[in-house]
Design brief:
The chain is an all-alpha fold and about 220 residues long. It folds into two domains: about 55 residues, Orthogonal Bundle (Arc Repressor Mutant, subunit A), CATH 1.10.10; about 130 residues, Orthogonal Bundle (Tetracycline Repressor, domain 2), CATH 1.10.357. It has eleven helices and no strands. Helix 6 packs antiparallel against helix 7, helix 7 crosses helix 11 and helix 9 runs antiparallel to helix 10. The chain starts with 16 loop residues before the first helix and ends with a helix.
């Protein structure tokens, strides 16, 4: 090869910090699956914005994403799961476990959630707003949002038990995780109700200030 002949540049990594955190632990095959899942969701939200949730079918979503219906169901068990599930939990767990082990848990959550929200707003604001508006406005989605594995309580409970180095969470851990999960859910729903006009980072900060007044020492 001539010294003057240009060499192929390595593929650029994701510029989105959250996307980079999601892809980092994955194999090439798993990264392709992640991107297919995200592409299906993007097409679904585009169609829903045009014709409404109830009028958008799985067949239409699959066709828009250029996948088969069976491929859709490999990624999402139902149309509701397309809205209620996401890929952010691993990024949140990573961010929380990276906080100092001796830091109060609520402060760790406050910093990690605000940081993740700022990244999501920078890169995926409209998708996040669309999703939370749907959860807020569509009764079947609102009814299922607290079902496992959709309940954020499980995420916080997982981190609490890992930080404590125990196999089973204590009652105090369960109460704390339930409170944090409920508070963060209410914040994003309130943000969606306002049409995204409020600063969600300020809302998160306020929510944790309220929690810290009642959970001092946790």
């Amino acid at each position: 090869m001539s010294a003057l002949q240009p060499t192929a540049a390595p593929p650029a990594g994701p510029t989105n910090l959250v996307q980079a955190m999601l892809e980092a632990p994955l194999s090439l095959r798993e990264r392709k699956k992640l991107k297919t899942r995200q592409a299906i969701r993007r097409e679904a939200y585009r169609l829903i914005a045009e014709q409404g949730y109830e009028n958008t079918t799985v067949d239409q979503i699959a066709a828009a994403a250029e996948v088969s219906q069976s491929t859709f169901f490999r990624y999402f068990a139902t149309k509701e799961d397309l809205v209620l599930t996401d890929e952010y939990d691993p990024a949140m767990v990573t961010a929380l476990l990276a906080r100092p082990a001796d830091e109060p848990f609520l402060h760790s959550c406050r910093e990690a959630v605000i940081g993740l929200m700022r990244e999501l707003l920078q890169h995926e604001r409209e998708e996040l707003l669309t999703r939370m508006r749907l959860v807020n406005d569509v009764p079947v989605l609102r009814a299922r949002m607290h079902e496992a594995p959709n309940d954020p309580q499980q995420l916080y409970l997982t981190v609490l038990t890992r930080r404590a180095g125990v196999e089973q969470p204590t009652l105090d851990m369960r109460i704390t995780a339930a409170a944090v999960g409920a508070a963060t859910t209410e914040v994003v729903l309130h943000w969606a109700e306002s049409g995204g006009q409020d600063d969600i980072a300020d809302l998160v900060d306020h929510a944790f200030a309220v929690l810290e007044r009642g959970f001092r020492g946790v």
